């Protein structure tokens, strides 16, 4: 007979009472133990009564020595089991939620579905919430855990894993904390990591517990902390994608839409918001880029300085050169949040991150990344993967990447602080030259009778057809126009004129684009044959 098949104290007590032909009330009267307490024992609600209570019951039932010893042993086992499974008060308690929590309705529905979803036997249900710094992953997880707390009668545990620190919480230490929170005494926590993880899974297997693992560092850190099946659930938050975790349900947390951002800022300001125009609050929310942390900082700044004018703060935030430094309030600073992710990067990837801030357009691909960083394109792909994994870049369709506006400002600040003026100038010239020469080569595809060089510049993007050239010019229009401005400002007219002249035939294909009107001043410039690059036309 296995341990779980053994009859408990209550079952054996009920058998002895019936054998003695005593009702519950009669046994209560003879033993001096209340009928309610006896009922709790027989139902299994009290598995391990004290020794004097067991002695009184054995005397009342007139048990022989063997029966008496058996009842005392079961009571002792029940007390030990209660000690092991009783949660230790105060350990891994769920933090309080914020009163002004706003939005995330679809995400809260996602978690509710996670709670009640069915899974195959032995498969634990795990939710993974990912997103970049400042998006409020912890705030969301705490609010969501409070909302579903009634569904977990055996408790909700919260554990900070310190994933962005230099020393994340080790999995073995995390298991010890969680086992203590589940009621396992220190002396009963196994020293062997595998045994410790096995005990943890067994503790969760017959309970309904929600375990919130906040700020995870890696797959290795959390694997041992996941339930092995049953009704318990785990919810993980992390800046990393943790792509190696199998069988988890993923939720990517994004910026708040502008209406919800404005609502959150209004909620943070409370009564003070009545003094400010709605358009001003909307403008402040827009400048925060949908990041709850940024909205919290701006709201707290206004609350702590009642005489400040919200419109003046919005005007200060409009200045990109000084915007990032405005996002600080007490110990809250948006740059610190980004900095924790930045510190996780390898030195080579930090350099890529900084240099990407000098790209003039809104998005870019691996080829332009390689030019900006001065590295092979294979290394550029690796760096981009690492930046996306940590939420410092957003990846989109067709291999294009982009910064969040505030992350771009942080990257620009790192470039200013960690790169010399000469290095920054060389970076700008390198990118400007590459962009305009590639644009010039692309534009030549559409000039009738024009022969492209037999051996194009090996440093430029490989464009083997007019369709590829058309696509490159369209997706890189912001980068191209920014490069033209940079070349003009730095006194390199030949690059500007070559590019503008080559766009003549392509512009007919995109005549109604607003970008054509923005670049028309370049195309109206008179040609300068002495500086316009041409390959030999066919005779």
Contiguous runs where pLDDT drops below 50 for at least 5 residues: 1-5, 517-539
Oligomer: single chain
Q: What percent of residues adopt helix (DSSP H or I)?
A: 40-55%
Which strand-content bin applies to the residues?
5-15%
Radius of gyration: 33 Å
Strand order of the largest sheet: 2-3-4-1-5
Question: How would you classify the helix and strand content by structural class?
Answer: alpha/beta
Largest sheet: 5 strands, parallel
Gross morphology is elongated
Distance from first to last alpha carbon: 98 Å
The beta-strand count equals 10
Average residue pLDDT: 86
Counting DSSP H or I runs of 4 or more residues, the number of helices is: 25
Strand-helix topology:
Elements lengths: L8 H11 L4 H8 L3 H8 L8 H11 L3 H21 L19 H12 L8 E6 L6 H11 L8 E5 L10 H11 L11 H13 L4 E5 L4 H5 L9 E6 L10 E4 L5 H12 L8 H10 L4 H13 L5 H9 L1 H7 L1 E2 L2 E2 H10 L3 H10 L6 E2 L1 H8 L3 H13 L4 E2 L5 E2 L2 H14 L2 H24 L21 H10 L1 H13 L3 H15 L6 H10 L16
Parallel strand pairs: 1-4, 1-5, 2-3, 3-4
Antiparallel strand pairs: 6-7, 8-10, 9-10
Helix pairs in contact: 4-5, 8-9, 11-12, 11-13, 12-14, 17-19, 17-20, 18-19, 18-21, 21-22, 21-23, 21-24, 23-24, 24-25
What does this structure look like?
The protein is of the alpha/beta class and 539 residues long. It has helices at 9-19, 24-31, 35-42, 51-61, 65-85, 105-116, 137-147, 171-181, 193-205, 219-223, 258-269, 278-287, 292-304, 310-318, 320-326, 334-343, 347-356, 366-373, 377-389, 405-418, 421-444, 466-475, 477-489, 493-507, 514-523; strands spanning 125-130, 156-160, 210-214, 233-238, 249-252, 328-329, 332-333, 363-364, 394-395, 401-402. The protein is elongated and about 110 Å long. Helices cover 54% and strands 7% of the residues. A hairpin with a 5-residue loop joins strand 9 and strand 10 (401-402). The strands form three sheets. It has a five-stranded parallel sheet, sandwiched between helices.
């Amino acid at each position: 007979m296995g341990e779980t098949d053994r009859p408990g104290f209550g079952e054996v007590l009920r058998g002895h009472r019936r054998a003695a032909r005593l009702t519950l009330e009669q046994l209560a009267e003879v033993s001096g133990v209340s009928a309610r307490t006896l009922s709790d024992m027989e139902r299994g609600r009290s598995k391990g009564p004290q020794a004097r209570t067991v002695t009184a019951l054995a005397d009342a039932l007139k048990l022989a020595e063997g029966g008496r010893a058996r009842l005392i042993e079961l009571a002792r086992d029940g007390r030990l089991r209660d000690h092991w499974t009783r949660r230790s008060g105060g350990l891994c308690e769920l933090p309080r939620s914020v009163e002004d929590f706003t939005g995330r309705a679809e995400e809260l529905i996602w978690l509710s579905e996670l709670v009640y979803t069915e899974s195959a036997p032995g498969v634990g249900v795990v939710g993974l919430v990912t997103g970049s710094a400042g998006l409020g992953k912890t705030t969301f997880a705490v609010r969501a855990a409070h909302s579903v707390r009634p569904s977990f009668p055996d408790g909700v545990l919260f554990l900070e894993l310190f994933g962005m620190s230099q020393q994340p919480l080790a999995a073995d230490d995390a298991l010890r904390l969680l086992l203590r929170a589940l009621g396992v005494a220190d002396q009963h926590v196994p020293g062997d990591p595998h045994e410790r993880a096995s005990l943890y899974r067994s503790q969760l297997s017959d309970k309904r517990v929600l375990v919130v693992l906040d700020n995870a560092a890696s797959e290795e850190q959390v694997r041992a902390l996941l339930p092995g099946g049953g009704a318990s659930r785990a919810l993980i938050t992390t800046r990393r994608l943790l792509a190696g975790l199998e069988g988890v349900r993923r939720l990517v947390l994004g910026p708040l839409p502008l209406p919800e951002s404005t609502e959150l800022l209004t909620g943070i300001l409370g009564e003070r918001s009545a003094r400010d125009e709605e358009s001003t609050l909307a403008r402040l929310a827009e400048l925060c880029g949908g990041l709850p942390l940024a909205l919290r900082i701006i709201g707290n700044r206004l609350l702590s300085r009642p005489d400040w004018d919200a419109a003046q703060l919005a005007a200060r935030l409009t200045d990109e050169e000084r915007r990032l430094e405005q996002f600080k309030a007490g110990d809250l600073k948006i740059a610190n949040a980004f900095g924790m992710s930045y510190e996780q990067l390898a030195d080579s990837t930090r350099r890529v991150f900084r240099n990407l801030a000098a790209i003039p357009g809104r998005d870019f691909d691996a080829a332009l990344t390689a030019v900006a960083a001065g590295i092979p394109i294979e290394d550029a792909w690796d760096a981009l993967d690492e930046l996306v994994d940590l939420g410092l870049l957003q990846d989109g369709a067709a291999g294009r990447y982009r910064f969040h506006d505030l992350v771009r400002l942080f990257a620009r600040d790192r470039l200013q602080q960690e790169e010399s003026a000469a290095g920054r100038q060389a970076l700008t010239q390198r990118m400007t030259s590459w962009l305009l020469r590639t644009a010039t080569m692309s534009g030549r595809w559409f000039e009738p009778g024009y022969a492209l060089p037999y051996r194009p510049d090996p440093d430029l993007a490989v464009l083997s057809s007019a369709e590829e050239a058309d696509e490159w010019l369209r997706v890189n229009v912001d980068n191209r126009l920014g490069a033209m401005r940079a070349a003009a400002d730095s006194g390199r007219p030949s690059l500007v004129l070559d590019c503008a002249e080559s766009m003549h035939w392509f512009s007919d294909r995109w005549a109604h684009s607003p970008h054509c009107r923005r670049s028309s001043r370049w195309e109206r410039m008179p040609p300068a044959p002495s500086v316009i690059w041409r390959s030999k036309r066919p005779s």
